Structure formats: structure tokens, C-alpha cells
From TrEMBL:
It comes from the Bacteria. Substrate binds at residues 242, 244, 382, 385, 422, 522, 552, 556. Residues 175-195 have a biased composition (Low complexity). Residues 175-199, 554-585 are annotated as: Disordered. GO terms for biological process: cellulose catabolic process. This is Glucanase. Its EC number is 3.2.1.-.
Length: 618
């Protein structure tokens, strides 16, 4: 297993406030026809930032065909990204308008929207709202007496992750090709069963099955290290089974798929389903722009046939065994595949592989979606790859081509996953405004970002979600984030905003938690740490983020590099090597010095480092 890249966890739950407003009865006739109520919830807050979710309910007697929600912040909040609405802000006044898929709200119906933002002095909740010019404010209530804190100590994500772990999801599993239909479905309760036994969020109300092979690796390291309690904790969290070659199905290098699922069934407790995670990762011409993780199947017509008949068909056959029908099986579909179709068509290997990527994934989705208890999540790279506006805008066409060509169309996928086996932070807690001007230059102009305004995965996934929905994808297609190695704790992690630097470059260097020399570095990164443990609904049910997962097992190498004793591997994994940014810049690879461990093999020194630098601490 690998992970390459081309060119954040939320802070402590400082407050969970809800403001509920009922229609003002200044004009009863108008209120009866056009009544509204709004619930505003600060679902996550940290020093200088917040995530808010709103529910707009049509309490009037007539249906809405479109809506414009207006309010004024009671503090100095500034919105930086939004979902399920078009948002403009002038001073403290905010206008949120409906999109093409959620403008219609029947009498008694509702819709959800939300945003992420920054604040300096106050994150006080707004107290009055209007919809289409009709005031729907009146009374105020709060669900917590906690007040916002500007203390830097509130930047720890552990409280936020823990507090929201029990939240239920709102993504619909019974998708249709109609965005409006899925928008309605996404408002339903999570964990409820839809057609074919499929549920809205596979993680809600379920246990997360632990891969016994990975647990054994962790336990062996714990024993070797004299019973390290933090290391032992890693083995209590779910990781995925990587099916990264045909032999892996039978278990030539790990537990086989059938045994893995059999063990998962045995772990089930009465009335509680078990979630098992697998990675589908063996496309013809796999990883066309890298070397460490090149696959076994050539990018040819014969290779596509091999992929379908010898890889996907056996997997689908095992998954469809009725003995495993009680499980919820989360399938991560082909990391690094379609992102290469978006950006790397200048490489001949990627040009050649593209039709096989598209056909192979279409085939995989058709076969796996036919198994009702399988949940398909398409890999969609990460902020340091597709985060530039030009790359993001080019993404929907590629993904839409594949998904809509499947038999079930949009229903063939359950969502997307970003940061698979990568290191990009879920949030950059002290770099929340990419256009902040320091010394005459915006922060995103510095070399580390190169005008990519998505500094972290929360920003990237929110923006990508909005981009995909605008292109026709259902609102129920939400995102998972692989947080297995993106914590960036340790002594190098900033603990508070440093506002003293007078240049954008120095400001970014002083405040970013991502300690890589270059955002394009991807192999066995030195100084990295484990991120937030697997968590369901970390930002609330209205967020585009469904959950955090550990898809890459911490401690398994990304890849080795060519040496005098062996010629295989990837030079990007060489600690003495360099990476380039395509603009003439050259940077160190960031790989851990002193080791050369093949992809997928246990890497003890890396595991020890990841545990030591975990954030939050284990």
C-alpha cells in the first residue's frame, strides 16, 4: 500500500448552542401562509473557528418553491465555506439562498444547510431570521450553558470527536438519479433501513470490526516495546483490509476476504450489525503516475478482462454469500484512479490507463452494488491534489461519466472518501482564511500552497461536495476522511495562532500543522502522527462529512526505493531524494531517514513515530 499526491480535525467542542425561532404573529394571515422556523446549532467550535448547522422548516400553509434566508450575526463571525445553500455576507448580515435541488419545501417540510467560519471576539448565535422577507423569529433557547472560549487549549479535537461520535447520519442510501429526491431522503433519520436492507449511514448503530491480522501486528509491536499502552490503543480501532492484488482475496499476505468476513460475523452481538471495511485496489495500470504502488494487471484489453473475471468477480461472489448478509461492508473503491483521469492526462501511462480505469470501476460498481449490504465509496484524492479550482471544476465530469454509466446510476455509490492513506490535515486550525493578506500577499500564494485555497480536508470536501451536487450528484453522497495519519502532533505542532510574522511565507510556516517540506510528499512522512480515531458524524448530520475512518493501517509502509541491492521501488520514497512541483521547485521527499521498507510491510519505526505524534494523543 502506498499513497502519492499531486500538484482539519475540528477543535474542542466549546459550545453546542441551538436557537429555535417561531413565526412572529404580526400578521396572522401572512404568517399562516408563509410561516417559518429556523434551528441554528453550533455543532463544533474552537478558538477562532466554528461549524454551524441550520434547519429551515416551512410552518406555513403554502409550499415554498425557493427560499432566501437572511439573518445577522450577533458576533464577528465570517463564513469561509458553506453547503446546501449559496451564501453571501456583507458585514455581519448573511443571505443564504436555495440551490436547484432544495428550493421546494412543502408545508411542514424542512431542509438543512450549514457553514464553517472564523471569529475573533465572539461566536454568539444569531437571534432573528427571515425567509423571503417574512420574519420567523421570536423565542430563543440553548441546549448548553457553555460559552465560547478563545483559549488556545480548546484546540484539542478529542472532545469534539468524542462528543459527536454518537450523532446519527442523514445521508440517504436509497438514492435515485434525481438530486431533489435524494435531498428529501437525506433529511430522514439515520440508521433506518431502506430498500434491500441498505441503511443511510453504515456506521450508525453498528460495531466496527477489527482486522485480526492488523491487531496481531500491533500486539506484536506492543510486546516488543514492553507493553506500550498508547501503542496498544491503536489496535482497538478499525482499519481496512486491503485487497491490493488477486492473491490477497485468498489471503496470501494477510487474512483472506472470506475468513475476514467469517470472523466479522462471529464478532456480531445480538441485534447489532458489524461494519467491515475493504479496499478495492487492483485496476489495470494502477497508479499510472507513481511507482511504489504500481499494480499487477497491465492497462490492456486483456488486463481489463483479468481484472473483471479474476479480481472483481471473485470478490463479488464472496460478498454475496448469504452467510455474510448481516454485515455492513464498506468498500473503498480504487484509490488514485479517477483523480489521475482528472489531472494527469499529460502522462502517456495515464492516457493509456484511463479507459480501463473508467470501465473497470463501472464494472466494479455494478457487481458490488448488486450486493445490498455493500456500501461503495469512491476515492476522490485530497485537497493537495484536486483542491485547485481548475482541478475541482474538472472533477464532476470524470466521476459523472463513470457513475451514470452504471446500471443503477447515482445509486451505485454511497459517497466519497478523501485523504486515503495520505497525510493532509482534516483542518488547519490556525490557517482558516486562505486569502488573508500578510505583508502584501495572500496566504495561499506561498510556495507550500501555490494558490490552492483548500488548505485542509474539511474545506476541500465541503467545496467538492458543493461542486458535485451542483453537477447533479445527490446530496446524500457525503464524504469519509481517512484520518489514520493526518494528526501532525508532536513538538512541532503549533499550539496557538502566531500573528507576529510580517510575510505570508513566514506566517504560514509559523502556523501550519502540516510539517511536510512539500504538500506533494506522500511516502512514509517523517514527523507525521495518527489523527482522530474513527468517528461517526464528527461535524453533525448536516455536514458533508459523514465520518472519520482509518483506511490505511498505521505502521504499514507506503513503499521502498531503488538501491544498489534492489532496483524496485519508488524514488519518491528515498529520504535522500527529491520531489518537484511542476513549476521548477524542488523539495525533499520528507520520507523517514534510515529505513527502506517495501509497501504494505510492517514498519516498526514508523508505527512508533505515528503513536508518539498522535493528535489527539492516544
Amino acid at each position: 500500500m502506498r499513497r502519492r499526491v499531486w500538484v482539519s480535525v475540528a477543535g474542542a467542542l466549546g459550545m453546542a448552542a441551538a436557537t429555535t425561532l417561531t413565526p412572529a404573529l404580526l400578521d396572522q394571515a401572512q404568517a399562516a401562509a408563509n410561516g417559518c422556523s429556523v434551528t441554528y446549532t453550533t455543532s463544533s467550535q474552537w478558538a477562532g473557528g466554528f461549524v454551524a448547522n441550520l434547519t429551515l422548516t416551512n410552518t406555513g400553509t403554502t409550499a415554498l418553491t425557493s427560499w432566501s434566508l437572511t439573518f445577522t450575526f450577533a458576533g464577528d463571525q465570517k463564513i469561509t465555506s458553506e453547503w446546501n445553500a449559496g451564501v453571501t455576507q456583507s458585514g455581519e448580515a448573511v443571505t443564504a439562498t436555495s440551490l436547484s435541488y432544495n428550493g421546494a419545501i412543502a408545508s411542514g417540510g424542512n431542509t438543512t444547510l450549514g457553514f464553517q467560519g472564523t471569529w475573533t471576539n465572539s461566536d454568539a448565535v444569531p437571534t432573528s431570521f427571515a425567509v423571503n422577507g417574512v420574519t420567523c423569529g421570536g423565542t430563543t433557547s440553548t441546549s448548553s450553558s457553555a460559552s465560547p472560549s478563545a483559549s488556545a487549549t480548546s484546540a484539542s479535537p478529542s472532545a469534539s470527536a468524542s462528543a459527536s461520535a454518537s450523532a446519527s447520519a442523514s445521508a440517504s442510501a436509497s438514492k435515485s438519479a434525481s438530486p431533489s429526491a435524494s435531498a428529501s431522503a437525506s433529511a430522514s433519520s439515520t440508521g433506518t433501513t431502506s430498500s434491500g436492507g441498505h441503511v443511510a449511514d453504515p456506521f450508525t448503530g453498528a460495531n466496527r470490526f477489527l482486522n485480526p491480522s492488523y491487531v496481531a501486528e500491533v500486539n506484536a509491536q506492543v510486546t516488543a516495546d514492553g507493553g506500550n499502552a498508547a501503542e496498544a490503543k491503536v489496535g482497538t480501532y478499525q482499519t481496512a483490509l486491503w485487497l491490493d492484488h488477486i492473491g490477497a482475496i485468498a489471503g496470501d499476505s494477510n487474512v483472506g476476504l472470506a475468513q475476514y468476513l467469517t470472523d466479522a460475523v462471529a464478532a456480531e452481538k445480538s441485534g447489532t450489525p458489524e461494519v467491515a471495511e475493504i479496499v478495492i485496489y487492483d485496476l489495470p495500470g494502477r497508479d499510472c503516475a507513481a511507482l511504489a504502488s504500481n499494480g499487477e494487471i497491465p492497462a490492456t484489453a486483456a488486463g481489463l478482462t483479468e481484472y473483471e473475471s479474476q479480481y472483481i468477480d471473485p470478490i463479488a461472489s464472496i460478498l454475496s454469500n448469504s452467510a455474510y448478509s448481516s454485515l455492513r461492508i464498506v468498500a473503498i473503491i480504487e484509490p488514485d484512479s479517477l483523480p489521475n483521469v482528472v489531472t494527469n492526462q499529460s502522462l502517456s501511462a495515464c492516457q493509456t490507463a484511463t479507459p480501463y480505469y473508467e470501465s473497470g470501476i463501472e464494472y466494479a460498481l455494478n457487481k458490488l452494488h448488486a450486493v445490498s449490504n455493500v456500501y461503495n465509496y469512491l476515492d476522490i484524492a485530497h485537497s493537495a491534489w484536486l483542491g485547485w479550482p481548475s482541478n475541482m471544476s474538472a472533477t464532476p465530469a470524470v466521476y459523472k461519466t463513470v457513475v451514470t454509466n452504471t446500471t443503477a446510476g447515482y445509486a451505485s455509490i454511497d459517497g466519497f472518501i478523501s485523504d486515503t492513506a495520505n497525510y493532509t490535515p482534516t483542518q488547519e486550525p490556525f490557517l482558516t482564511n486562505p486569502t488573508l493578506n500578510v505583508g502584501g500577499n495572500p496566504l495561499d500564494s506561498v510556495t507550500f500552497y501555490q494558490y490552492n485555497p483548500t488548505f485542509d480536508e474539511l474545506t476541500y470536501d465541503t467545496d467538492m461536495y458543493n461542486t458535485l451536487v451542483a453537477a447533479g450528484f445527490p446530496t446524500s453522497d457525503r464524504f469519509l476522511i481517512d484520518t489514520s495519519r493526518n494528526g501532525w502532533g508532536g513538538s512541532s505542532r503549533p499550539t496557538a495562532l502566531n500573528s507576529t510574522p510580517t510575510t505570508a511565507t513566514a506566517y504560514v510556516a509559523a502556523n501550519k500543522i502540516d510539517q511536510r517540506p512539500f504538500r506533494g510528499d506522500w511516502c512514509n512522512q517523517n514527523g507525521a502522527g495518527i489523527g482522530t480515531p474513527p468517528t461517526d458524524e464528527p461535524f453533525g448530520t448536516s455536514s458533508p462529512i459523514m465520518g472519520f475512518v482509518w483506511i490505511k493501517p498505521p505502521g504499514e509502509s507506503d513503499g521502498d526505493y531503488p538501491t544498489s541491492t534492489h532496483t524496485h521501488g519508488d524514488p519518491h520514497c528515498d529520504p535522500a531524494g527529491t520531489n518537484t512541483d511542476g513549476n521548477g521547485g524542488t523539495y525533499g521527499t520528507g520520507a523517514i531517514p534510515g529505513y527502506d521498507v517495501p509497501a504494505g510491510q510492517w514498519y516498526a519505526a514508523e508505527f512508533q513515530m505515528l503513536v508518539a505524534n498522535a493528535y489527539p494523543a492516544l
